[in-house]
């Protein structure tokens, strides 16, 4: 596929949900089928045992706990269905209390939490080329966030599943890139909206209309 001008984000309908409506022109569902990506994706569920197992466990959790379980509960239920035991917690140091609380939830479910803070290693930001002016408080030691180190330590511990708890934008991308275990997210950081980034979208026509002027 190339030069996509129309996508699901612009369509905004549920035409694909029940297969009971006509697809709009240039629909990605139709293009995926015509160009072979749909059949290729379905083959992955059959050829890769882990992919299929995760897909089946995810569907089971959705069906059993839809609109009844919190995100924290769903992670526990998913881990149980997958037979996971060791759960890595890649945490922002600013959400370390939430990490402790979730660790207690995992322990109560007979799972083993292994948490590591983003500031582990205590390396100054300048050591990887971050300039002083890009520190929150310039002129002194300020530890860098090190999602690569977080992933490496959890890889060494051979965790079964890793959970992101409030890593910064971009740091979560790096953690996912280097993590050997599957990754899911408990909390998405948004300091302005009490970690509810969807709130800005719900108010995009009034309080947060500046989102439409971010050029």
Detailed description of the structure:
18% of the residues are buried. This protein has 2 domains: 22-68; 71-215, Rossmann fold, CATH 3.40.50. The chain has a 4-stranded parallel beta sheet with strand order 2-1-3-4, sandwiched between helices. The protein is built from 10 helices and 4 strands. Helix 5 (49-65) crosses helix 6 and helix 8 (147-156) packs parallel to helix 9 (171-178). It is globular. With 215 residues, the chain is of the alpha/beta class. The mean pLDDT is 94.
Short description:
With 215 residues, the chain is an alpha/beta fold. 42% of the residues lie in helices and 10% in strands. The chain contains ten helices and four strands; from the N terminus they run H-H-H-H-H-H-E-H-E-H-E-H-E-H.
Provide tags for this entry.
2 domains, alpha/beta, 10 helices, single chain, 215 residues, 4-stranded parallel β-sheet, Rossmann fold
C-alpha Rg (nearest Å)? 21 Å
Distance between the termini: 27 Å
| Integer average pLDDT | 94
* Main beta-sheet strand count, sense and barrel state: 4 strands, parallel
Topology record:
Blueprint: H1 8-11, H2 15-18, H3 28-34, H4 37-47, H5 49-65, H6 71-82, E1 86-91, H7 96-108, E2 112-117, H8 147-156, E3 161-165, H9 171-178, E4 183-187, H10 198-202
Parallel strand pairs: 1-2, 1-3, 3-4
Helix pairs in contact: 4-5, 5-6, 8-9
């Amino acid at each position: 596929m190339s030069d996509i001008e129309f996508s699901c984000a612009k369509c905004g309908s549920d035409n694909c949900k029940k297969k009971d409506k006509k697809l709009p022109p240039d629909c990605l569902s139709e293009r995926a089928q015509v160009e072979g990506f749909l059949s290729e994706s379905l083959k992955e569920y059959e050829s890769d045992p882990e992919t299929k197992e995760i897909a089946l466990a995810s569907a089971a959790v959705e069906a059993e706990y839809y609109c009844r379980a919190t995100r924290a509960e769903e992670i526990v239920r998913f881990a149980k269905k997958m037979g996971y035991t060791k759960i890595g917690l890649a945490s922002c140091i600013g959400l370390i209390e939430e990490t402790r609380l979730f660790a207690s939830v995992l322990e109560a479910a007979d799972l083993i939490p292994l948490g590591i803070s983003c500031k582990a290693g205590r390396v100054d930001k300048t050591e990887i080329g971050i300039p002083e002016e890009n520190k929150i408080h310039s002129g002194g030691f300020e530890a860098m966030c090190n999602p690569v180190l977080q992933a490496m330590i959890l890889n060494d511990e051979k965790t079964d599943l890793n959970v992101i708890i409030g890593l910064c934008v971009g740091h979560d991308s790096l953690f996912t890139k280097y993590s050997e275990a599957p990754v899911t997210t408990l909390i998405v950081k948004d300091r302005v909206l009490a970690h509810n980034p969807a709130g800005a979208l719900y108010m995009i026509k009034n309080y947060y209309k500046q989102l439409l002027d971010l050029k």
